[in-house]
Design goal:
The complex is a heterotrimer of chains A (about 300), B (about 350) and C (about 325). Chain A is about 70% helix and about 0% strand. Chain A has about 300 residues and is mostly helical. Chain C is an alpha/beta fold. The longest helix of chain C is centred in the middle third of the chain and has 14 residues. The chains are: A mainly alpha (about 300), B alpha/beta (about 350), C alpha/beta (about 325). Chains in contact: A-B, A-C, B-C.
């Protein structure tokens, strides 16, 4: 038998793209906002991971003699009310923000993914119960829920991550469940089941790989919100506790000394804004890149 | 000769309709297949033709174990099944390969073709290395070069995707392949290649095909026998040549006439009735050009008009020479209003 | 006879990731008033691009060259606003998918009135009356009820008829039907084709019927144009082209059609090879790599599109004979 070599039609739009890989990154870099967002996010991640190496000073080292100093060559962003180096605190604050944001969303994602697949594939009563719980949780105002949990368990990073996990998970659950309901009726899933594949096998080989794309976008879009929650709770004194550096606690300090040293509030507010915008832009750029409809730039 | 596949009085009902609809007296279940029986011999190709809503795809999926049966039985190569949870399905699945209507939808977009093709083997526990080797063999068999193994579905054309689904259907070396509209959406030149490929495979391996299609022109060339479906029933079964030369059911004749230049012979008026409101009596009477009173009240049974030629009609059309002896006396053609 | 559509050396090039994609090249085609043209081609033939060009719906990345005239107007010499006006008044289309052509949340009547928004000087109730008449003309019984219904309450065949009625309401000089029957059942398809045939008088102009089904062309069309890999290879009266095809591609295509093969056969004819990618077009004749009648000149010189009997053909073998 002869081998047939057909070339696919040039403009054939792929139904769904393959896993995000190098080409995704390349295409991401080709849009200006995507490129800038990616660079900023990578820089922030670098600061977070290598905070002890990047930061010029110890973030909790008190030096009462140099309180409220403005930006200078020794202290680029000045010092705070206890004479601590603001730049170092901002850098360590990045670490805290990312630790909370990443572990919180990762836990929420895992929870949402597992429950979403169970709800989507399982019996309809399981789906019903999970949906009810999910909707009940989503109807709670997040900040009130957070304050209530903190009131019971006391403020700490662990509490913060728990709160974030439980407030983000219902959103992921919803997305995953709806996607699974679509996917389970697609021919390749039906085909797999008709071959005798178990539900677990179907979930791992077909569902998860096809869910990853939309979820990556969702996460990038959600991280700013999570950073906001962390900063907000810390600002209210219900999150990260001093002396540990967090953007929220620093902002709270800056607020107290706004008259004396405005640079404190600016220096701690700015990273929140930058990180939020960068992740939002990254999310949007990722969505455009991963969305098959826009992939060929018609 | 024992047939490879025997379907007996297969009924498939779906739950449908709302509680609100039920209050208005609408049925809560839709009968998609209303008692289908058919036989398929080893090495034979049976064409299943009909319009959308005729239940041909559902019948194919039920035989492939993808749609739960409400009643009836399916026997394949001596192994019978009467329900979806039936333990026999596992054994039956080894003997059935399925080609989906839309080959792109049937391939996981995030899965390499080598993995897609050998998925039936993976499910039955064949090792990874063995599967990779077999995937290359299967690709060759369907006329694709081995480097297709490392591609993703979006990197191949529609015609190639068809071949890939053929390869997957063959992976377990089944005795029956169910091909659901295998040429839908293909260009004429590529369609020929695919049909020739299926024919070669059948000649080499003796596999049987259940060939589901709405394209009578294709069915005429590639099938041995044809079963015509309407509203979830087989209304006529005969050897392919007989279907074309001596269609006995008015519906078959109408279907055939849609493809000829001369449309005066009998264009069907009206639409296929809803499955939720099946007409009484003969279900075709609402569109039938020769419907009589009896057709509205009494459902016809299947009867033989010739050897291997079964038809479900009170007044089967027969060739002009025989018409005088067999045409019923009370036959009164009815002029139907425009639908 | 007046030409409704006149294309002269018309080409369409898309900006692609891997450089320009010449999707349609040097098409010369004339359609006279009152005739139905069957535009035939397989995937990659460029027929969809050509249809978009006729409807002035090409994407921004497309560059055109040559001339495409609708009546007396050179479509691509007009301003964007003039083209848009043309689209609403003189061009109408019936698309492939009757399920997406109509807005699902608006009643049929309101949609049919909205389609007439460019008709000045008649009242809403007159427009509704026109819509009712048009529905009756496309063979819809009880048009008054249909006007108050939503699209999902109609079957596919009825919806496609509503789409045809909508297209005809604007009195187009060109009606472009882009594979309007592919999504329909065989019996419904036959009905829709019958309706178009009956309504041809209602179009004060011409109909372009895009299809891949030669049987439909034979039943419905007066003229046929065969496209291959972005080029027009043969055009002429249907009877002439289907009975005496001159281009080897037309011949091969007709030979492949299972409906045209008299004796049932398990071994169907095919066209060896594949359609060339627009990025790697062969030199000379576009069909030369797959042609059974290829001669030396085919591989180096692109054949001109010349009259031959009643048709026009782009083939060196025809020129030679």
């Amino acid at each position: 038998m002869t081998t047939v070599e057909e070339t696919p039609p040039v403009s054939a739009p792929p139904a769904l793209k393959a896993l995000p890989g190098w080409s995704t990154v390349r295409r991401l870099l080709s849009s200006p906002s995507g490129a800038i967002a990616l660079v900023v996010v990578v820089a922030l991640v670098f600061c977070a991971v290598f905070a002890p190496l990047v930061a010029p000073y110890d973030p909790v080292q008190i030096a009462p003699r140099i309180r409220f100093q403005g930006p200078s060559l020794e202290h680029w962003l000045g010092t705070d009310q206890l004479g601590r180096d603001v730049l170092s605190r901002v850098i360590f604050g990045t670490r805290v923000a990312f630790k909370v944001a990443l572990s919180g969303t990762a836990a929420a994602l895992l929870l949402g993914l597992v429950l979403g697949i169970v709800a989507g594939l399982g019996k309809s009563w399981i789906d019903g119960v999970l949906l009810l719980v999910c909707d009940a949780m989503r109807s709670l105002p997040m900040i009130l829920f957070a304050l209530a949990v903190v009131a019971i368990y006391g403020p700490s990073m662990a509490t913060l991550i728990t709160v974030i996990t439980f407030s983000m998970a219902p959103g992921y659950f919803r997305v995953v469940r709806n996607q699974v309901l679509v996917l389970r009726n697609m021919d390749f899933v039906v085909a797999s089941q008709s071959m005798g594949a178990s539900l677990g096998r179907v979930a791992i080989t077909h569902l998860v790989p096809n869910l990853i794309g939309p979820i990556i976008v969702l996460i990038a879009m959600d991280i700013p919100a999570v950073i906001g929650i962390e900063s907000g709770l810390s600002f209210l004194g219900q999150g990260i506790q001093p002396p540990e550096a967090s953007w929220g606690t620093m902002l709270s300090d800056g607020y107290s000394f706004l008259r004396q040293a405005p640079h404190l509030a600016i220096a701690s507010g700015l990273p929140v804004i930058v990180a939020t915008i960068a992740f939002t832009f990254l999310g949007e750029a990722l969505r455009d890149v991963l969305d098959p409809k826009s992939s060929r730039g018609r | 000769m024992i047939p490879l596949l025997e379907v007996n009085d297969l009924v498939v009902r779906y739950p449908a309709g709302s509680l609100f609809g039920a209050l208005k007296g609408e049925p809560r279940k839709v009968t998609v297949l209303a008692g289908v029986s058919l036989k398929l011999n080893q090495g034979e190709t049976l064409g299943l033709v009909g319009e959308s809503g005729s239940g041909k795809t559902t019948l194919g999926r039920a035989i492939g174990g993808m749609t739960p049966m409400s009643s009836g039985s399916i026997t394949l190569a001596g192994v019978g099944a009467t329900g979806r949870k039936d333990g026999f399905w596992k054994e039956m699945r080894r003997n059935v390969g399925f080609m989906f209507q839309d080959p792109m939808a049937a391939l996981d977009p995030r899965m390499l073709l080598s993995a897609s093709i050998t998925e039936p083997l993976a499910v039955t526990g064949t090792g990874r290395a063995e599967r990779r080797r077999l995937s290359v063999d299967l690709l060759r068999e369907v006329g694709l070069s081995p480097d297709f193994a490392a591609r993703y579905p979006h990197q191949i054309s529609g015609g190639q995707a068809r071949r890939v689904t053929v390869a997957r259907a063959l992976a377990l070396r089944p005795r029956l392949v169910i091909a659901d509209e295998p040429t839908a959406g293909l260009d004429l030149s590529v369609q020929g290649e695919l049909l020739n490929l299926l024919n070669t495979i059948q000649a080499d391996s003796g596999v049987s095909f259940l060939f589901i299609t709405h394209n009578l022109a294709v069915a005429r060339h590639v099938t041995d026998r044809i079963a015509v479906m309407y509203l979830g029933r087989i209304v006529e079964t005969a050897r392919t040549a007989d279907i074309f030369a001596r269609p006995a059911h008015p519906y078959t004749r109408a279907l055939l006439s849609t493809h000829s230049t001369d449309t005066s012979a009998g264009l069907l008026k009206g639409e296929v009735p809803s499955l939720r409101r099946r007409p009484g009596g003969c279900e075709f009477h609402t569109r039938c050009p020769i419907a009589a009173d009896r057709c509205r009240s009494e459902a016809p049974n299947e009867r033989a008009v010739a050897t291997d030629h079964l038809v479900r009609c009170h007044f089967p059309l027969v060739p002009a020479s025989e018409a005088t002896e067999q045409a019923p006396l009370n036959h009164q053609p009815v002029v139907r209003s425009l639908a | 006879m007046t030409a409704i559509i006149d294309m002269n050396d018309f080409s369409i090039t898309y900006a692609g990731e891997r450089g320009p994609v010449p999707a349609v090249r040097g098409v010369n085609l004339t359609l006279e008033k009152g005739r139905i043209l069957g535009l035939v081609g397989e995937s990659g033939s460029g027929k969809s691009s050509l249809v978009s060009a006729m409807l002035a719906l090409l994407p921004k990345s497309a560059k055109v060259s040559g001339r495409l005239s609708i009546g007396a107007d050179d479509l691509y010499a007009l301003s964007e606003a003039q083209r848009r006006a043309m689209r609403g008044q003189r061009l109408a289309t019936v698309s492939q998918d009757p399920f997406t052509a109509l807005n699902p949340v608006i009643r049929i009547g309101a949609q049919l009135v909205e389609f007439q928004h460019r008709l000045k000087g008649i009242s809403r109730s007159q427009k509704l009356e026109r819509a009712r008449e048009m529905l009756a003309r496309v063979g819809i019984s009880d048009p008054g009820t249909r006007l108050t219904q939503y699209p999902h309450q109609l079957s596919g065949g009825l919806r496609q008829r509503v789409a045809i009625a909508a297209a005809l309401l604007v009195n187009p000089s060109i009606l472009i039907a882009d594979e309007p029957t592919t999504a329909l059942d065989a019996t419904t398809e036959a009905e829709v084709i019958e309706i178009i045939r009956e309504l041809r008088g209602a179009v004060d102009g011409s109909i372009v019927f895009v299809t891949h089904d030669m049987g439909v062309v034979a039943r419905l069309c007066d003229d046929v144009a065969v496209m291959y890999a972005g080029e027009l290879v043969e055009s002429g009266p249907v009877a002439e082209v289907l009975e005496r095809p001159q281009h080897p591609y037309t011949r091969a295509l007709l030979a492949c059609d299972p409906a045209r093969i008299e004796t049932p056969s398990r071994s169907l004819p095919t066209i060896p090879g594949t359609v060339p990618s627009p990025h790697a077009l062969p030199a000379g004749c576009i069909f030369s790599p797959r042609c059974g009648a290829v001669i030396d000149i085919c591989r180096s010189v692109r054949p001109a599109f010349l009259p031959s009997d009643q048709s026009r053909v782009a083939c060196h073998r025809t020129e030679a004979s």
